Amino acid sequence: MLPVAGQEKFTKNCPNCGAPVKFRFAQAVQTVCEYCQSVLVRHDVNLEDVGKKAVPLVDSSPIHLATEGIVQNRPFVVVGRICYEYSAGRWNEWHLIFNDGSSGWLSDAQLDYAVSFLTPTNTQLPAYPNPGEVLTFNNVSYVITTVTKAQYVSVEGDLPFTTWDRELCLFADLRTHNRLFATIDYSENPPLVFTGVACKYDELKLKNVRNFEGWPQ
User: Fold this and answer.
1) Model confidence pLDDT, tens digit, residues 106-159
2) What are the Cα distances from residue 97, in Å, to 18, 106, 135, 195?
3) Which long-range contacts does 175-184 make (Cβ < 8 Å, 24+ apart)?
4) Distance (Å, rounded) from C-alpha 169 to C-alpha 161?
5) Which phi and psi angles does 166 have, rounded to 5°?
């Protein structure tokens, strides 16, 4: 899942419909054409149409591409999304870009929010996680709270890895007593660890959001 594309932002025409495709994230390796919804994979300076269509998603989240916010005094903008489906419904993982060019993820699950970042670790991860297990990342102990099997529903915008050839994945979510958050993504080998913090909607100071009747402004 680590970025492998070049560092320069660029604009290219969609190989399917010819429309201009502008990458918002310099290290993106996958994006979606806004006009024909083709999933496009970047190979250096070329784009490949992988023969997949992103299913347009309409949900009740106020967040969308180009939403801006702040977490831990760091401004960000939303540049991509993955939508997952599991036994209890769906949730979004929004790809964030910060002012310094780094990226992170905003988990948006039925009004529960958490921002996390890819975190290198030497911790021995369980082959299959179980709720209640305690794991330590960067000297912080987390408790596994949920284990979720999910499938990809759709994507949009710029992502730092490809999703078009994936179907099912396993996640373990972990928390601490003081709202620190972590997740283990078992779709990679070895699994990837992301750590961050659980957030309330108002704490994110979001702007350029979709408005719904009754939603806090």
Assistant:
1) 999 888 999 999 999 999 999 999 999 999 999 999 999 999 999 999 999 999
2) 27, 11, 28, 16
3) 175/142, 175/143, 175/145, 176/140, 176/141, 176/142, 176/143, 180/140, 180/142, 181/114, 181/115, 181/116, 182/116, 182/119, 182/135, 182/137, 182/142, 183/107, 183/116, 184/125, 184/129
4) 14
5) -110, 155
At residue 57, what is the residue type?
L
- Give residue for tokens 């054409």: 33
Which residues is 156 bridged to in the sheet? Answer: 81
3 state DSSP class of 203 = helix
Asked if 80 contacts 56 with a C-beta cutoff of 8 angstroms, the reply is no
Mean pLDDT of the residues in the chain? 89
Q: Is the pLDDT of residue 171 over 70?
A: yes
* For residue 213, pLDDT beyond 80: no
Question: For tokens 């003081």, what's the residue?
Answer: 178
Rounded mean pLDDT, 83-97? 93
Rounded to two decimals, what is the model's pTM? 0.89
SS3 83: strand
Measured CA to CA, the distance from residue 184 to residue 113 in angstroms comes to: 16
